């Protein structure tokens, strides 16, 4: 469905979609661990907290 929506004039074949999926899965399996995921999420949360505190500071001015 997404293939038809995104690229309705020239949709990918099933085998192309399957190969892309396999490639993404293989890359994810090789490059991510629970520790790495946790550190990424922690860094994102810290950025969000900094942004929120800046917004609150600017709103209080």
From TrEMBL:
Gene3D superfamilies: 1.10.340.50. This is Replication protein.
């Amino acid at each position: 469905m997404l293939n038809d929506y995104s690229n309705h004039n020239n949709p990918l074949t099933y085998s192309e979609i399957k190969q892309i999926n396999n490639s993404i899965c293989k890359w994810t399996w090789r490059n991510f661990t629970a520790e790495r995921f946790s550190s990424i999420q922690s860094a994102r949360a810290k950025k969000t907290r900094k942004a929120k505190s800046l917004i609150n500071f600017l709103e209080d001015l």
